Amino acid sequence: MTELKKRVFAANWKMHVGPDDAREYLSAFLQRYPGHPDREVWFFPPAVSIEAAARAAANRHDVTVGAQDIHWEAKGAFTGAVSAPLVKAAGARAVLVGHSERRHVFGESDAETGRKVRAALSATLLPVLCVGEKLDEREAGNAMAVVTRQLDAALGDVDGPNLDGIVVAYEPVWAIGTGRNATPRDAAEMHKHVRAWLLGHGARRAVVLYGGSVNQGNAAELLAEPELNGVLVGGASLDPFGWAQLVQTGAA
Ligand code: PEP
After folding, report:
1. Ligand 1 centre from 235 Cα, in Å?
2. Which DSSP string corresponds to 45-70?
C-alpha cells in the first residue's frame, strides 16, 4: 500500500468489466505496464470482479484492488449490499467512500460516509474518501465550505493515527464524466485545503488525489502540480492499453 512519496494512479471501473473481462484486462495491462518504483496502480472493479482482479494482480506489489462501495454494517439483512469484511475476503485492500455517484445518484448522506469510513478502518481496508462540490456550489463560492463539511462529517471522529491511513480524492462533481476538468491551479487550491484539514486534525501525512475527466491528454499537466499525489480516473481507465499509457507517461 502506498507510501507518501509514490504517485497513485487509481482506476474506477464503475459498473463495467465483469470477472472474465477483468482477468483479460489485467493480463493485457500488466504486460504493457511492467511497473515503476515511484508509482502505484489501484483498481476499483465492480464487486463481482474484485476477486478475479485481485488474483490476476496477485504477483504485483505495486497493484492494489479495492471496492467501489461498502455498507457500514459488517453483516446482516441488507439485501444487495456488500460489507467491508466481505470485500476484504474477496481480495480488496481499499474502498472508495462517498464517490459522487453514490452521493448524488444514490442519495448517500455525509453521515453515511462517516459510518463507511469507520467500517473500512475496522476491517483494515484503506478508505479513499471522495469529496467535491457541485457546479452551483462552486459558482456560489461555496466549494471549500462544501468540502470542509464533507471532511468534517466523514473524518471528524477519526483520530490522528487513523487519519494517516486515509486517502482523500478531490473530485469536483461538475468534472466527473463530463470531459471538463479542473485546472491544475484550482485542483491545487482545494488539495491544499484538504491537506490543511487533515494535518490540522492530527494526521502526519496527507495523500490527496484528483479526479474528474483525467485522461492521457491532461494527466501530465495535472500531475506536474506537486499538490496532486495522484489521480482517480473513471472513463479513461477502461481500456487497458490507454490506461497503461496514462500510468507510464502521466508522472513523467
Ligand atoms: C470517477 O469515476 O471517479 C471519475 C473521476 O470519472 P471520470 O474520470 O470518467 O470523470
Report:
1. 6
2. --GGGHHHHHHHTTT-TTEEEEES--
Out of 233, 243, 246, mutate this one to test ligand 1's pocket (max ligand atoms within 8 Å of CB): namely 233
Q: Which residues contact 173 (CB under 8 A, 6 or more apart)?
A: 100, 104, 132, 133, 134, 135
Residue 225 vs residues 132, 153, 239: alpha-carbon distances, Å: 19, 28, 25
Would you call 97 helix, strand, or coil by DSSP?
Answer: strand
Burial letters 123-132, b for 16+ CB under 10 A, else e: bebbbbbbbb
Grid cell 470485500 in the structure block, residue: 87
Burial label, 217 (beta-carbon count in 10 A; 0-12, 13-18, 19+): exposed
Looking at residue 224, its amino acid is A
User: What is the spatial distance between Cα 131 and Cα 226, in angstroms, rounded to a whole number?
Assistant: 19
The share of the chain scoring above pLDDT 90, in percent, equals 92
Q: What is the mean pLDDT of residues 20-38?
A: 97
Q: Tell me which of 135, 167, 171, 238 to substitute to probe ligand 1's pocket, judged by most ligand atoms within 8 Å of the beta carbon.
A: 171
Query: What grid cell was written down for 119?
Result: 467500517
pLDDT tens digit string along 63-80?
999 999 999 999 999 999
State how far the alpha carbon of 71 is from the alpha carbons of 12, 75, 82, 95, in Å: 18, 9, 6, 11
Task: Identify the band that residue 1 occupies on the pLDDT scale cut at 50, 70 and 90.
Answer: very low
